[in-house]
Amino acid sequence: MAVTKPHAESAKTIADPSPLSPCACFNARSAARAITDLYDRTLEPAGLRITQFAILTAIDVRGHSNMHRLAADLGLDASTLTRTLSPLETSGWVVSASGRDRRARRLELSKAGRGKLKQCRRLWTTAQRKLEDTIGSERFQRMIGDLGIVTRELRDETT
Cys-Cys with 96: which of 22, 105, 116, 152 at CB 3.0–4.6 Å? Predict the structure, then answer.
């Protein structure tokens, strides 16, 4: 009888000694850290992290935003958003002003912020391509779709 070699992915899963290997949360967090590291290293020449790039992008897409809407768009709590936003404001890439309701700050990209975002988009595209090249186009597209579904389903469940 011929012995077939297990597929490389199956061999890794079977040989993985971690007791957490079947845990969805552990695997999602491990993957998120690895992907974040790739994007952060790629964005490093621009002096931004992927979390900061996401904030600039979210503000740009809306034209302006407030803290509550921005936190909801990004799935962040207020303190995390404030901590991540602060260096963007200090650098002058995001400006804030009082909105109609004085308690709500209106956030916009400055001219310098739009320039920084343009620079970062080129680097972000490089990171996207690197990830897609590394894991394959089909898996990349499936991952994007699957993660979007998981996020929506779990957020819908909690509301």
Answer: 105
Helices (H) and strands (E) in the chain, counts: 7, 3
Domain boundaries, the chain: 25-158
Phi, psi of 17 (to 5 degrees): -80, -5
Distance CA 140, CA 133 (A): 9
State the pTM of this model.
Answer: 0.79
Q: At the topology level of CATH, where does 25-158 sit? A: Arc Repressor Mutant, subunit A (1.10.10)
CA triple 131-136-139, angle to 5 deg:
95
Torsion of CA 35, 156, 74, 49, to 10 degrees: -10
17 three-class SS: coil
90: amino acid identity, one letter = T
Give the Cα separation of 97 and 28 in Å (integer). Answer: 37
Contacts of 35 (CB under 8 A, 6+ apart): 131
Mean pLDDT (the chain, rounded): 85
Render pLDDT for 47-77 as a digit per residue (tens, 0 to 9). 999 999 999 999 999 888 888 888 888 888 8
